[in-house]
Specification:
heterodimer; A: 451 residues; alpha+beta; four-stranded antiparallel β-sheet; three-stranded antiparallel β-sheet; B: 70 residues
Chain lengths: 451, 70
Amino acid sequence: MPQVMVVARNFMDMVAALPASKLDMLYDSAFICEAVLRSLPPLAKKYALQMLYMLAPLTVAAMEEWVLDEYAAKHRVAIDKLLQLRVFVEMRDRRKEVSYKMNQKFQGNMQKYLIDGGSLPREPVPLSVTGRLPASADLEAYALDQWECFLLQLINSSQVEKGTSFSSSMMKTFQRSLLSSRDGEAPKLTENGFQFLLMETNSQLWYIMREYISSAEERGVDPTDLISFLLELSFHKLGAAYSLNTLTDVQRIATRDLAELGLVKLQQGRKDSWFIPTQLATNLSASLSDSSSSKEGFVVVETNFRMYAYSTSKLHCEILRLFSRVEYQLPNLIVGAITKESIYGAFENGITAEQIISFLKQNAHPRVADKIPAVPENVTDQIRLWETDRNRVDMIPSQLYEDFPSKEWFEQCCDHARDHGYLLWEDTRRMKLIVRGEFHPEMREFLRRQR
Amino acid sequence: MVNAIKGLFISCDIPMAQFIVNLNASLPASERFIVHMLDPTHMFVQPHVAEMIRSKIGEFRDQNSYEKPQ
């Protein structure tokens, strides 16, 4: 069973993991303050607002009086989050009493923000300069197209038509944990890679952004700059044009990379050039849980295990190939069958039955999506059955103990192992017991003490 | 003196257990790996045979399936 999962944490976890000085630097920007405030859980949000005009530090005891005892856990979570993001700063006075004070920069920025509202560091370029801007549907199509192109290149598919201009070293960083390449062999997707392909766009995007940010230092770019730019970008208006001249050099280079990923569209005017954020960019700081994709599905699965995918996308075809047998491909339709062999092939690659089923459900064609269930039950059940069929034999490394000199001793050992939850099997009559292998040192110690 | 033996604890359904027993019996005496047959669905075997058993089961499963030619 695959234990590794591609973790798709959200943006704020990454921000919280920054060292304190960097984090304080981030708070120079009012947008980041706002983005951080938005990301907080409700209670923490309330605390932050409550403390907004409080200049003196507040003791922990005083704060605890705000909550009823039964909600102490929630209070703790909220405070932890605030401390982690350094919205609150812990202080100790002479009597060792702990109190919290709001981060001064954060406080100042938020107060200002409340009074004049936020304004982006750059204004949209007026329409008179840009002329007609792409319609939102076009922009969306562009973004998805670009993203798909990137993904195809990422998995080294032979179907790439136009490559992105990422340097191969950059592509390597992205592929680091998704592809495994042994010397002299074509790179193969790893378990992570397969799971990555089955994730929804936002999680994928986030994963790539994380790699992009964490590899920033190798490229001589401060990750903090990138994070602050990305957060700022998510506040830009979807589909409006912003001049490239307002950006710093680091940001301009980043913009070029982001354009490759489909986060922004670059356009060139007569004198000026500008970028247009797409919905991939504006969704970036949204937490992953509430960004359920509203993309229209394309897969119809029939009770006879045939699968029809109405898609022109090569990426979709590649993904379907992961777990089904593609029989023919028409310009807008992929016909395949879910067979035992194809599903086993997927299991070999570390994809689980649940992932396949949830992929089929999430991408169900609108015609079948309203039906309950969207994927026929006999198909989902069969996929699960095939998976359990692989796990019919359960093997646990263990230790067998026998030849106990007395019944009492045997019973004591049994009880000891059982109390710790490591007992696998016992035979009272023949005085044999089996415990999990990792418990052996402890068991040996116990036997020695008994003697 | 209590005796400790390192090994694998296998739990499975009855047909699979029979398959493993049969596999064990088909090997020459020096290579047999079942240490104790505990009950019809549990057994205790030598520690190094996990991969071998898994691959044999895989082979057995493949014999029972047929893929239609493309």
